[in-house]
Amino acid sequence: MTDLKSQISFFSSIRSHSIKSLLACIAVITLYAPLQARAYEDTVTKEVFEMPLFNTVGGQVIRSVRIGYESYGRLNAKADNAILICHFLTGTSHAAGKYQASDPQAGYWDSIIGNGKPIDTNKYFVLSSDTLVNLGVGDPHVVTTGPSSINPLTGRNYGLSFPIVTIQDFVRVQKALADKLGIKKFVLVMGASMGAMQAIEWATDYPEMVERIIPVTSSGFESNAYLIQTLHNWSYPIMMDPAWNHGDFYGKHPPTRGLSQALTEVTLSSRSPTWAQKLFANRIASEGQHPIQQWQNKYAIEETFAQAAEARSKISDANHFLYLVRAQQLFKAGNYADIQQAIERVQAKALFISAPSDLLFFPSYATSTVRALKEADKSARQIELVGSGGNLDGITEIESVADEIRNFIEH
After folding, report:
1. pLDDT in tens, 23-37
2. Which of 44, 83, 236, 296 has its CA 20 to 30 A from that of 350?
3. How far is 272 from 270, CA to CA, in rounded Å?
4. CA atoms within 13 A on the CB side of 315
């Protein structure tokens, strides 16, 4: 199976009694979302960036900040051939390649990052970092500071005493990393979903340093009311789980049930009715166990989503999830009262990539943003992905606009 279409065909041909055998693959598609055609050629190494002190946008101090990062290609002598990749909510810095040859899958945008690919590592130095409060704290390849970290002042896990952080904070940490590496300019900053927020924030906060941005499945320059409530709905199952205990669950039983349901909500929001029907239709989870017979009997989509989310929850942290949700709710590029101020600061050329079936970051968000940029005499345009899989087409179907990405970078 080399692409999503062949996976759908494969899954559609399998009967409901084999649903458990699909779990690992479905977890990849719905929650992790990579599985691309071919791998970045070189072995990837996770590096660690540390900051003794970090001052947040909210005016608080975080001590001993650590984030992980990866890079592909080489930085040139002028330090001006860098590209930054920013990840989505459930993602990590693992954008391309493999840590070792035996890894089952490559990074999530491996199809467009590598030697001779649209983001050509023969020409560019590609950088990707884990955000603060990254979701996957149980992943051995993730390095992140957040609520699960030990507060050096108390010797205990921060929990909800960890400062609330924003997309702007994520970008400020990335800027500090770029400074350490000696990067003078980014040819491109690109990201999907929450990563698109970071790309726009970069163009607003450091306009002289960013030549181009590609926000994929973007919310535009701020999170609107509908998105804010959608994000709250994702958080609700965690806060209703008694095990969450107002964020104080470290060393105790974690709120796995609430986190699993939250991840299920994220996955459904990130997909589309067409995708769900193609993959699952109305098949039942287990042959001979129809939902009309017993309450515990489930449909295939229910069973698969539940098992995949439970598996992902085991390497994720409920508080980190809540902090990532809050960061997206708070998103307002440049933190200006007037969005027009943020738009006026942008110097980068912009290519917005939308997914026609996106029910999370609707294509109209990008359309209105491109219009506003053009009205301010900025260079901006919008293209659409090929696919009907919802918001996550921005990850799984990115190769469908590979030529447009290459042309945008090179011309």
Report:
1. 433 444 444 444 444
2. 44
3. 7
4. 17
- Look at the block and give the residue holding tokens 């590029």: 333
Give the 3-state secondary structure of the chain.
CCCHHHHHHHHHCCCHHHHHHHHHHHHHHHHHCCCCCCCCCCECCCEEEEEEEEECCCCCEEEEEEEEEEEECCCCCCCCCEEEEECCCCCCCCCCCECCCCCCCCCCCCCCEECCCCEECCCCEEEEECCCCCCCCCCCCCCCCCCCCEECCCCEECHHHCCCCCHHHHHHHHHHHHHHHCCCCEEEEEEECHHHHHHHHHHHHCHHHECEEEEECCCCCECCHHHHHHHHHHHHHHHCCHHHHHHCCCCCCCCHHHHHHHHHHHHHHCCCHHHHHHHHCCCECCCCCCCCCCCCCCEHHHHHHHHHHHHHHCCCCHHHHHHHHHHHHCCEHHHCCCHHHHHHHCCCEEEEEECCCCCCCCHHHHHHHHHHHHHCCCCEEEEECCCCCHHHHHHHCHHHHHHHHHHHHHC
Structure confidence by residue, pLDDT tens digits, 142-183: 999 999 999 999 999 999 999 999 999 999 999 999 999 999
Could you tell me if 218 and 369 are in contact, meaning their C-beta atoms sit under 8 angstroms apart? yes
In angstroms, rounded to a whole number, what is the distance separating the alpha carbons of residues 183 and 209?
Answer: 9
Could you tell me whether strands 349-354 and 380-384 are parallel, antiparallel, or unpaired per DSSP bridges? parallel
CB neighbourhood size of 339 (10 A): 17
Per-residue pLDDT reduced to its tens digit, 67-94: 999 999 999 999 999 999 999 999 999 9
Token pair of 62, please?
């975080």
Q: Which pTM was predicted?
A: 0.91
